[in-house]
Amino acid sequence: MSLARRTIIKWIFILIAGVPILLAIALCLRATRTPPSKQMVYLPDGSRLTVNAITAGTRHAFYDKPSKRLYPLLQAIPGVPERMVDAVRPFGYEANSPILVLWCTWQQTWSTNPVPEFVFVDESGRESEALQPSGVATHGEDRPPSQGGETKGMFASGALRPKERELRLRIYQQERNQNRTCAGELRFRNPGYAP
């Protein structure tokens, strides 16, 4: 075999082997991108609430760790152990009709902290009805009452607001004396905006 022919075969082999390697590197880089900006507030009881994302539509997914973006890839590869696939499974929710979903992390100081309440605010300052709580933030029977902890997942859902480019979200918490106190107002790009 001539030297030119061997060189051509070598380059073909390098290209065939290199394309999957480059694709794998690109997927890993994409998976480690930083998530959209998170916003945090301290609630009146001293606990910390981070709104990680707001999603719109009927199929919702929240990737709390960059590695969870590998889920579709691992799910598609035959023979990958189920425990590996489960380890990178994102939080997900499917709705019957299009809605907005709030994905949060709540760092509680005590397991008896009152659950936060969420409302949207329109341009004129009027508040919507309270968003529907999801049940994720209920106080766990898995922790003693004296201990806090972190709760992560879908906290609330509400109707789409397609005419608003930006969402204004107010967060309330009911204190032990039954007063409802506003912890803050956050602004987000509306994922359900339809001009």
Low-confidence parts, pLDDT < 50 over ≥5 residues?
137-146
What is the approximate shape? elongated
Structural class comes to alpha+beta
> How many angstroms separate the termini?
64 Å
How helix-rich are the residues, as a percent range? 10-25%
Strand order of the largest sheet: 1-2-3-6-5
- How many helices in DSSP terms? 3
- Main pleated sheet: 5 strands, antiparallel
DSSP E strands, number? 8
SSE succession: HEEHHEEEEEE
Task: Walk me through what this model shows.
A five-stranded antiparallel β-sheet has the order 1-2-3-6-5, with no helix packed on it. Strands 4-7-8 form a three-stranded antiparallel β-sheet, with no helix packed on it. It is elongated, with a radius of gyration of 23 Å. It has a domain of 114 residues: Immunoglobulin-like, CATH 2.60.40. It is 21% helix and 38% strand. The longest helix is centred in the first third of the chain and has 29 residues. By secondary structure, the protein is of the alpha+beta class.
